[in-house]
Design brief:
Elements: H1 4-25, H2 30-37, H3 41-48, H4 56-66, H5 71-75
Length: 79
Amino acid sequence: MRGKGVVERAFQKALGKRLAAMRHALSLSQSAIHRRTSLSIEYISRAENGHENPTVLALRNWAQEGLNVSLSKLFKGIR
C-alpha cells in the first residue's frame, strides 16, 4: 500500500496536468489565466507542474473564471 504522501503527490500531479490540458484545449496562455483569475503566473506554473497544492478557493476561481468549467468537471476522473 502506498503512503499518504505518495497518494497526495500523485493527485497533485494529476490535477496539475488536468489544469494545463484544459488550458491548452482552450488555447489559453498562463498569462490569460492570470488575467482572468488574478492568480500569479508563478502560482499557475507551479500548480500545473505539480509543485503547488492549490486551495479550494483558488481552484474554484481557476475553474470557473479561468476555464469556464465547474469544479466537478475539473476533478472528474482524477484519482
